[in-house]
Recover the amino acids of this structure.
């Protein structure tokens, strides 16, 4: 990775859960971070405050990545605050579960707009504006390989992200930019736990060789590696960070 006085990163959906853990981990590694949020301003500002209290640099920026103006807004903010962008973490996403026969068009459209459209626009913006030697880290999901009932649309959006990851890695190789994806298994976040009973969560925990759900910090560590100079020979890969569930 080309070295600058300061590395900077945009992390989408960074007000809570995995995104917040990534923001804190990268900041602890000396990276200045854009903590993106769509609606949860107070939560995003809390993440920024925690980073600043430990000597890191961060700002919160509102942008809906499902909107076409969202990603340019984030890059503009990062360039103004930090002079450029080295790392993009396409973390933001939504998950609505239902059998395919019961999925309505509006729910389908919203998942495609954010999980696929938002990541596409982030990759497109990064391809034009990321500094040479940078890092693009997309988020897929291990459900792409599990094929569980109810996850059809969500898994489809993530499978598409994986395909774009492989292609963009080859397109940006000449500039020394790596493009990879992280595919977590079940992680104990608000997004995952929403609507699940204790019995369902216990059954999911038993599926894992470690007998537990992943924690946001488990995933943040993988992202921190992919964002670092040490990952320079890892490109066009999908890393299933799931404790061995698949």
């Amino acid at each position: 990775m080309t070295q600058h006085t300061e590395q900077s990163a945009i992390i989408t959906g960074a007000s809570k859960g995995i995104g917040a853990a990534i923001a804190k981990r990268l900041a602890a590694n000396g990276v200045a971070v854009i903590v993106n949020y769509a609606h949860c301003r107070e939560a995003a500002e809390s993440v920024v405050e925690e980073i600043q209290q430990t000597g890191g640099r961060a700002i919160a920026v509102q942008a809906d990545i499902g909107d076409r103006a969202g990603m340019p807004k984030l890059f503009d903010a990062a360039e103004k605050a930090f002079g450029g962008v080295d790392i993009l973490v396409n973390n933001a996403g939504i998950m609505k579960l239902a059998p395919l026969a019961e999925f309505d068009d509006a729910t389908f459209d919203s998942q495609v707009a954010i999980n696929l459209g938002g990541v596409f626009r982030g990759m497109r913006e990064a391809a034009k504006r990321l500094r040479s030697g940078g890092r693009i880290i997309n988020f897929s999901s291990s459900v792409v390989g599990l094929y569980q009932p109810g996850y059809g649309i969500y898994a489809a959006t993530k499978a598409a992200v994986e395909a774009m990851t492989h292609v963009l890695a080859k397109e940006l190789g000449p500039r020394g930019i790596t493009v990879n994806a992280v595919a977590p298994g079940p992680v104990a976040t608000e997004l995952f736990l929403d609507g699940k009973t204790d019995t369902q969560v216990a059954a999911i925990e038993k599926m894992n060789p470690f007998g537990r759900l992943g924690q946001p910090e488990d995933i943040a560590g993988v992202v921190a590696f992919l964002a670092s100079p040490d990952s320079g020979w890892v490109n066009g890969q999908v890393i299933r960070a799931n404790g061995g569930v698949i």
Q: What stands out?
A: The chain is about 45% helix and 15% strand. The longest strand covers residues 32-37. The chain has one domain: 8-239.
